[in-house]
Every structure is written in C-alpha cells, then in structure tokens.
Amino acid sequence: MNTKYKHVLPLISFIILSALQPGGFTALAQGPGPGQRIPLPPIPLKGDTTHTLSKHFTLASANKKAPDAKGFIQRWLVLEPVKKDIVRNNIFTDNYLRTAFSADNFSGDYTIVPKHGETVNIGNQELKWYALDSKAFNVNLYQFTYAINRPKYGILVWLVTVIDCPEEIQNVRLAAGCNSGSMWWLNGQEALLLSGDRDMIADNGTSARLTLKKGKNIIRGAVINGPGMANFCVRFLDEKGSPLKNLSISYQ
Based on CB atoms within 10 Å of each CB, which residue in 31, 90, 197, 249 is the most buried? Predict the structure, then answer.
C-alpha cells in the first residue's frame, strides 16, 4: 500500500468499529424509518403576561378560614411592596432589619388591623392592602408583586392576619420560613426575627414559648428581600411540636 495512505488507516478502522457498535455514530446510520419522527426541541412555555392574582391567590371572603391540613396560615392582609434599594441579601443583620422595619412602618400600633382596599403612605409611596388567601401552603410574594405590576425585587412587604382561638393555648411556638429576612409580632409583642440570606424552608425559625389568648390574636409580619424570590410560610406548633389546626383565620 502506498505509504501516503498509511496515516489514515487508524481513522478508517475507528469509524468502522464505531459504526458496528450499538449506538455508534448516528452520522453513519440511515434516516428515520417509516413511522419514525425526528425529535424536535422542546417548545418553551410562554411567560405569564396576564398579571392576575387568581393564579396563586383568591380574594379572602368574610367567612373565617381554618389553617390547611398541616396548620399553615394561608389568609393574610398583604400590603403592596415598599420599594427598597437592596443589591444583595447578605446585609440582613438583626440591626439592619430592626432599623428598616422601624423606618418603613405603616403604623407604630402593632395590633392594628388594616382594611382590604385601604391605602397607606410610607415615605413617598402610596400603597394598598389586599386581603388574600394563598392557594399554596406558603405565600409567594414574588407572584403577588408580579400580579399587581409592582417591583418584584428590592422590596419590603407588610402582613397582618387575625387568629381566633376557642380557648387560651399556652406554650405554643410561632414557626416561620421566609426568603430572605423577616420579623413577626404576636399581639403587639416581638415573637421572632429571621435574619440573614435565607431560603424559604418551613419552620426555619421558631419563637420562644407564647400564649394564644382566647378570642382574637393579631399577627403582624414583615418580609424583606433584594434579588431573587420572596415568599414565606407561618404556622403555630404546640408544646409537642404538632401543628395547631383548631384555629379560625380572618382579616378583620
């Protein structure tokens, strides 16, 4: 054999052997046979451009609502977001959160219950309250702000709900998860502070032992987030760590 072709022999041998192997070079295979179709790339889903609350929420009714099957509170008064200049979430120290929540507060009365549709002013921003039931165990604030055409990133969102207890319940704990930082009050008293850059994990933080009084109990929350998703979940655990379900939830 002419020596000028010797250098291509290894390549020819490799191609022949590869073609004989199962799953060998598809370039050497025949086109699709009868009834076969060439796989198509997946068609991307169109983005949601409807900006409607109904995808993730329903407007709360006047009827009281029970927690879900695992005790999570799905009914909240949610204030439109306070826009904040936050470029990263690792700034959420205890001191930062306390300062931010104090400065951008809609009311110094932590037992006040706003009304659905009511507006308040924080700084130069006029913001409206929504009484909503989340369709999931958590409240997705990213989807809320998207639905109402408000900023989705760099936000502080205030929350209020009313828990009605048939009797006094002692030694309970408020358990919350959020993305990224949050603070929670029960009947006007601080109950839990979740600082740092967190992911939303159920029961990521729990309060000291608390007492739910007979009748109405007011929960206030504040969730703050820079880049990324913003959402939270809250429930009460009894002294054995089981979720409380014998509660009624309202927004008034």
Answer: 249
* Separation between Cα atoms, residue 107 and residue 117, nearest integer Å: 16
C-alpha 62/C-alpha 115 separation (Å) is 12
Give the mean pLDDT of 177-183.
95
**Cα-based distances in Å from 51 to 60, 74, 183, 235, 245:** 18, 21, 28, 28, 33
SS3 218: strand
Give the pLDDT confidence of 110-153 residue by residue, as tens digits: 999 999 999 999 999 999 999 999 999 999 999 999 999 999 99
Bridge partners of 134? 57
β-strand pairing of 155-165 with 248-250: antiparallel
Q: Residues with Cβ < 8 Å from 226, sequence gap 6 or more?
A: 84, 86, 87, 88, 89, 91, 153, 154, 180
Angstrom distance (rounded) from CA 181 to CA 159: 14
C-beta of residue 138 within 8 angstroms of C-beta of residue 200? yes
DSSP state of 118: -
Please return the burial class of 75, using the count of CB atoms within 10 Å of its CB with bins 0-12, 13-18 and 19+. buried
Residue 160 · residue 219 · CB < 8 Å: yes
Give the chain's end-to-end CA distance (angstroms, integer).
Answer: 95
What domains lie within the chain, and their CATH numbers?
59-250 (2.60.120)
The secondary structure of the chain in percent helix, strand, coil, rounded to multiples of 5, reads: 15, 35, 50
- pTM of the prediction? 0.80
